[in-house]
Design brief:
The chain is an alpha+beta fold. Helix content is 52%, strand content 17%. The protein contains eleven helices and twelve strands. The strands form four sheets. The chain has a four-stranded mixed sheet. It has a four-stranded antiparallel sheet with strand order 4-5-9-8, covered by helices on one side. A two-stranded antiparallel sheet has the order 1-2. Helix 5 (92-112) runs antiparallel to helix 6 (115-126) and helix 9 packs across helix 11 (371-383). The chain is globular, with a radius of gyration of 21 Å. It starts with 5 loop residues before the first helix and ends in a 6-residue tail after the last helix.
């Protein structure tokens, strides 16, 4: 058993979890604290991704952990959520890596690949020996994938892919890219080994967020792959959206980890920093800030558990994913901002994690569907009226 945070003690989180779920959480917390935390501030400062940690995640069974078979752990949804929760408590980048590798790249193959494709790619990806990325978003607009400009044309026994993708995680170090492209039969998914001529991935520079990770711009110029590299079960935009649902699910949990982390720092600071002759935690306004933050954290955790239980039961609807991402990301951002104010000027320094989490969460608010997109998904579910156009 690892140390339980003050917020979790008050919430009574362990009473809501099974022994197996607690074991996954504790394993992820130990890895995050021991292997990521000691260097994360430096990684963030110098924009370094420590690739050597990816096989360690594989050895712990955390890559594609929700997939059954092919060397994957086959863990339940709540366990996967708790792993995301613990990784993001240290830094969003590492929850994102697990999401890109498992929920996006591996899920694409697991859900839509042939048996041969699954056998070839999933076991080494689960071990962290091979890495994958997921190329859906394009430079002209991430929220409108139906207007996809990347094309794949069948030429004899080969597909020829041309186009561009942007904001694609770890695309420059991946061994394989899942590329979504428009064909004569609509949107299809393709397995593209990144060593294929014409595939170029360049890291995006100048980021002020997610600096301990890599996001790339991909150029695809006459990329030729074998005819059999198409994902046979993926037809239409519904296919990549099912993978995005897996990734968005991890976000719902992950951002609550960031919220917990900054609350725990602010609580400790409120007990040790003194003004006007007593700790600031004894001030009514500070206690009000802490109480408000804790209320939203607990509600966010209960929402995460509810969605996790729906997912495990096979009854999860996509609008519930939108409810979770919209609410939990928004509230995590509010919590981090409020907790930063408790820290005073020190809260904007690298000595404390507030600003790093705040900057990272702005990226999370944007990717995997913006606040506006998820609000319209919920609105459509409530009214039955499409408002995207």
């Amino acid at each position: 058993m690892v140390n339980t945070s003050r917020t979790e003690e008050i919430m009574g989180l362990d009473a809501l979890l099974t022994a197996e779920e607690i074991e996954w959480r504790d394993k992820a917390r130990a890895f995050s604290v021991d292997r990521i935390a000691p260097q994360i501030d430096e990684d963030f400062e110098i924009q370094r991704l420590r690739e050597e940690l990816i096989p360690e995640l594989g050895a712990l069974g955390m890559l594609g952990m929700h997939i059954n078979g092919y060397g994957c752990s086959g863990a339940n949804a709540v366990s996967y959520g708790l792993v995301c929760y613990e990784l993001e408590a240290v830094d969003t980048s590492w929850r994102t890596h697990v999401s890109v590798l498992g929920s996006l790249a591996m899920s694409s193959i697991a859900k839509f690949g042939s048996e041969e494709q699954k056998q070839e790619w999933l076991p080494p990806m689960a071990r962290g020996e091979k890495a994958g990325c997921f190329g859906l978003t394009e430079p002209h607009g991430g929220s409108d994938p139906a207007n996809m400009r990347t094309t794949a044309v069948l030429d004899g026994d080969e597909w020829v892919i041309n186009g561009a993708k942007r904001w694609i995680g770890i695309a420059n170090i991946a061994d394989v890219a899942i590329i979504w492209a428009m064909t004569d039969d609509g949107v299809r998914g393709f397995i593209v080994p990144t060593a294929t001529p014409g595939y170029v991935a360049n890291p995006i520079s100048g980021k002020l967020s997610m600096r301990a990770s890599i996001q790339c711009a991909i150029e695809l110029t006459n990329v030729r792959i074998p005819k059999d590299n198409i994902l046979p079960g993926a037809q239409g935009l519904g296919a990549p959206f099912k993978c995005l649902t897996e990734a968005r699910y991890g976000i719902i949990w992950g951002v609550m980890g960031a919220a917990r982390a900054v609350m725990d720092v602010a609580i400790e600071r409120s007990q040790t920093r003194e003004v006007f002759g007593k700790p600031i935690g004894g001030m009514q306004i500070t206690q009000a800030k802490l109480s408000d933050a804790f209320l939203e954290y607990e509600k966010g955790m209960l929402l995460s558990l509810h969605i996790g239980h729906l997912k495990d039961a096979g009854t999860l609807k996509h609008e519930q994913i939108s409810v979770g991402k919209l609410n939990n990301v928004r509230e995590a951002i509010n919590i981090v901002s409020s907790m930063r104010s408790i820290m005073g000027g020190d809260g904007v320094t690298a000595e404390f994690p507030m600003m790093r989490h705040m900057m990272n969460l702005e990226s999370v608010r944007t990717y995997e569907g913006t606040d506006e997109v998820h609000a319209l998904v919920v609105g459509r579910a409530l009214t039955g009226i499409e408002a995207f156009r």
